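Researcher: Good morning. I'm working through a list of sequences from a screen, and I'd like to move beyond sequence-only analysis. For each chain I'm collecting a predicted structure so we can compare shapes side by side. This is the next one on the list. No need for commentary yet; just the structure.
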Amino acid sequence: MQNRYFLFLSLFSFVLGFSQEKISSFFPKDQGRKDVFTIVNESDKKTTLFFIDKKSLKASQFDENLKLKDTLSITFSKKDVDDIIGYSRSENQYFIYWNGSNSNEIVAQCFDFQIKKATSLPTPFDIGKEKIIDKVTVNNVFYIITVLKDSSVLNFYSFIDGKQEKKVVDCSEMKFLSNSNKMVSFWELYKEKSILVYHDVIKNISDETPASLVLSTNKKKAYINGNKLRFTFDVNEKFTQMLTIDLSNFKASQKAYSKPIIKVGDYDYDIIGSNSFLVNNVLIQIKSSPKVLHLSVKDLEGNEIKNISLTEGMPVDFKNSEIIQENGSIKDSRILDKSNQLIRKTNNLNPSISGYYNDNKYHLVIGGVSNPQQNSVILGGIIGGFTGALIASAISSNYSVDNLNSYSNKKVVYIYSTFDKDFNHIEGDSQKSAFDKLRLFVEENTNFTNQTIFKFDSKLFFGGFDKNTKEYSFYKFEE
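Model: Good morning. Structure tokens for this chain:
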């Protein structure tokens, strides 16, 4: 009880220590419940919000001060389209891509703010025996990525200006390892599943907001760095496997990074867990048993920069916070006293690591996440009122909402840690990120619906319809 009191006192002080800044607001003509996503055009300092209901998609464009400047809309029928899967952008034209009701078709809707017109055009999309493994927008080009069944042949369908082009990336000469150390095809690696861990899908990691510990628990991830797309796989306990695709020439390269070793017989364990996270071109790996936790930091060539080990009974001298356990909400949290609890709970749950690089410092979250909840969805959790049913997380602002909401119905144990650019630990209390502040703001303010989250001019913004004031407002959060 005393630990919980001190945690709440800390959170209360945190709330008093910052104030979110309200940037602007407007009174929408239609105030119904909607799904929302955002596309930011940094080059001309414009932000466009897309509001979707059951019959229409409305694009509202805002200037650099988030003042409403223009609106375009288009109607649609659920007989023709299913859900939004991504977007591309060319100058002041925004192309929104939908799954067509016909499975062999994609519908492109173009919002042209130059000529003040919105149009819709279906395009054939028949992938036969290919399996879609990822959807992502890179440098304003939308990609659907597939793998040919029972093979290591990847296909990249690029969409720009509503037109599509296919590029084939043959990885047949590459070697992939399954969880049982068997050589398998990319198809088999991708299809490997477990109901106990987060194996099932490739999770896109965006720099829009720092990935939550829940999202980063996934064993299969995709990262964007410039024009490179990197897939990492942690289904094998001995190696992190990375596949890099250069989208400028569609050349592929592969690298395996050995994980820290926990020797058989050294510790009395029954489960070994592992994972990794890629940040600022540095791969951070975590491996744990009930009595030991290892961290290994490597550059992309595989050279180890730092190795950190924590065994039971040792102080956690690399932490910048208390050991925190959340049970689905910041409000339902408690402080754990001993390093043994961090080690054991990280291992009993699913080991995970996340972080971001800012001001020449690495800000990490290290811990574990409870197993996926069967037959549960993350929609409509702490970010009450958001449905998101029509929008894929391939769209960055929707990824950020899913990210914010991901702790709902999960037990999470974690610490914050801060390191310098050479991965030397920096003493002091952990810095509260803009994402931390936003997360607390949303939990404390449940009156917002139709929410969206986006980054503009290196700052984090939250938009939502306030049911009390009947206005749509934007708030800014900074480090």
